[in-house]
Amino acid sequence: MQGKHSATDANTDAATRGGMDFAALARDIKIWGRELGFAEIGISGADVSAATPRLLRWLELGRHGEMDYMAKHAALRAAPRALVPDTLSVVSVRLPYWPEAADGERVLASPELGYVSRYALGRDYHKTIRNRLQKLADRIRAAVDAAALTDAFAYRVFSDSAPVMEVEFARQSGIAWRGKHTLSLTRSGSWHFLGDIYTTLPLPPDEAISEHCGECTRCIDVCPTAAIVAPYEVDARRCISYLTIELHGAIPEAFRPLIGNRIYGCDDCQLHCPWNRFAQVGDPDFAVRNGLDRAALSELFAWSADEFDARLAGSPIRRIGHERWLRNIAVALGNQLRIATGHGPNSAPSSPPVSGGGADPAADSIRAALRSRRDHPSALVREHVEWALAQGADRPRRIEPRA
Predict the structure, then answer these.
(1) Are strands 40-44 and 89-96 parallel, antiparallel or unpaired?
(2) What confidence tens digit (pLDDT) does each residue in 286-311 have?
(3) Nearest alpha-carbon partner for 255 in 65, 113, 397
């Protein structure tokens, strides 16, 4: 793999080729990117050797959990030229998504509401960013064609869709640094998406950015499950985002009370980051859909599979499917029930399960919602429903395997 020094030299030596001024092209790329709505555009070389040891150690420790694709494609992630041969440059972009008036703290403090990670409240970012990156690549192609250098330009666009070290390229290109929560971070916060274009053009690289977290450990301190095990190190197996999105099976019981009302992802490390006080309002494509920023758990739990697919068409949430959607909401309803019956938000029931009932209308409503799924075809859903009912002193029902 070509090192950073040689890649930079190649870019510098080829600053002008065939009459094309690549420094001028780099400036144009940033102008075109801003015209497409990207907040920042930066350029780097294609070497990620500085970040590879951290990735390999993370995998060796098993901190990727069931995300087998992380281990399977580790070699590709560490070698950009394996994805696009002869890659010399990477164009990195940043697109804010923070929804206007998205009051995450208020939703988290309302156990009857379902908390959806802010990035998933609107349209699926994969398509939005990929389409805009393709338009940017088309502009580059036109400029290269005009200089009769068509054969010199190969490229591929990426939007969290392939083994690419987006955060490392963002750091090298000067548009974002890696925060202690491992997410990309800027002076405008972390509520943004990243995208990249691998290209064979020798574009002059920008200056890398240094990190500006200082002694702050707010993200580490507030993590509900202590998933940020050290600065810049996350154990995915403890992370609520992993547990509610990536994990296919049962959520470990020890983490269920800590999940609270988070039904898709978790943003606590970002909500408490001081830099996010300066967050930019996101692109209109990511405006809230279906009232997901303040939806009642009981209403979401009542969605049929067809309704789930229809309402979440074009949403990243659809990827987890209806079964895991119900699994997650069952956990949140159990936590809501525990609060409604006086057991507290983050503790197991203080008394052994007995025959439930109770005269509290709120608790009875939660129980009714959960009991409506007691005979769901999925054993995964049934098990989480029984756990949830037990949080309100319902005697768990034996779950029989289906024939």
Answers:
(1) antiparallel
(2) 999 989 999 999 999 999 999 999 99
(3) 65
**Tell me, what's the pLDDT at 18?**
60
**Which residue numbers are catalytic?**
160
pLDDT of residue 24: 97
Q: Are 193 and 120 in contact (CB under 8 A)?
A: no
- The structural domains of the chain, with segments of one domain joined by +, span 4-199, 227-390
> What DSSP element (H or E) covers 21?
strand 20-21
Closest CA to 336 of 300, 376, 293: 300
- On whether the pTM is more than 0.70, the answer is yes
CA distance 272 to 223: 10
User: What is d(CA 257, CA 388) in angstroms, rounded to the nearest whole number?
Assistant: 10
Please give the average per-residue pLDDT across 143-172, as a whole number: 93
Rounded distance between C-alpha atoms, residue 271 and residue 219, angstroms: 9
First to last CA, the chain: 54
- Distance, in Å, from the CA atom of 243 to the CA atom of 385, rounded to the nearest integer, reads 17
pLDDT the model gives residue 281: 87
